[in-house]
Amino acid sequence: MDFSVVAVAREDDSAVEEPLRVAVAADRLGYREVWAGEGPTWDAFVLATAIGRSTESVALTAGPVPVSVRDPLTIVRGAASCAAVTGRPVGVALGTSSKRVVEGVHGRARVRPAAVLEESAAAVRALLPVAPGEPVVPGSGFRRRHRAPGGPLTVAAFGDRAVGTAARHADRMLLDMVSPDQVRELRAKLHAAADRAGRTPPTLAAWLPAAVDPGPASLAQILRGIAGYLTVPGYREVFAAAGFGEAVRRAAAGEDPRVPEAAAGVMGLVGDLDAVRARVEAYAEAGLDEIALVPATAGDPGGERTLRAFARLPGWA
């Protein structure tokens, strides 16, 4: 199993600079890659550049960035600019994001999201390897001055059409907070789609909330994150099947879902080291290639305790 680390601003009362603390801890502990998450607080490419300037060697991936609010050239230019400033390989991750973010935050229409993801992934795939001196875009009259960013193209996927896009264009497909059973199902879909496309299947990664020996603050932070998934199709069914149907019902009714503590272990890596190790093994058995740790930081600044514990697991990469 490969481990990477997610540095993303939580839209709560956590410190704005918390993602940088997470990234610095990950670099110091020897993790190979940090994801710079996009959100209302941080621009992914600015955050990735700040991480690159604050760390020694960790590789960078910016995103997922919502394809409905950035055109392909803007995405590739951002990655190439970050790579030029940091001297690191920089990958990009693409996703459709949500109506709440695209329309509610950016003021853009989120229409045809699966089609836009396909169009953007194809264009970014073509633009990423453009070398210095070659046209930035064919016929534009402008030539690439930065080197290619050098990192992988990742596509965040859950629905069938997005999985197909990842199979056709990506080096890696990304899932977000999934159970081992969902990993198994989505991996099978990915491999089938890659066979149809005549490509080697992309590797499969998942962002998973993580907290080893969590205190009350860490656990509460993870449960707040889970609450946002209780009404999302594909997730609500998993929580209901796991025995949390009442929390799903309350969330659908607009009430406080009162997420039980046990829910933290359904789609994440939460508990003592033995419990977390067993969960890692379950994800590996289901076919996950990479776990991108989203460490709880409340009560554990920078996620240091959790990241250090994972770095001690046998066979981590």
**Main beta sheet: strand number and arrangement?**
8 strands, parallel, barrel
Number of domain units: 1
Q: In percent, how helical is the residue content?
A: 40-55%
Low-confidence stretches: none
H/E element sequence = EHEHEHEHHEHEHEHHEHEH
What are the salient characteristics of this protein?
alpha/beta; TIM Barrel; eight-stranded parallel beta barrel; 17% strand; oxidoreductase; F420-G6PD/mer; Luciferase-like_dom; oxidoreductase activity; F420_Rv3093c
Protein architecture, described:
- The protein is α/β, with parallel strands linked by helices and 317 residues long.
- It has one domain: Luciferase-like domain (TIM Barrel).
- The protein is 43% helix and 17% strand.
- It is built from 11 helices and 9 strands.
- Strands 1-2-3-4-5-6-7-9 form an 8-stranded parallel barrel, surrounded by 9 helices.
- Strand 3, helix 3 (72-86) and strand 4 (90-95) form a beta-alpha-beta unit.
- Helix 7 (180-197) packs parallel to helix 10 (273-286).
- One of its GO terms (molecular function) is oxidoreductase activity.
- It is an enzyme of class 1 (oxidoreductase).
- Its EC number is 1.-.-.-.
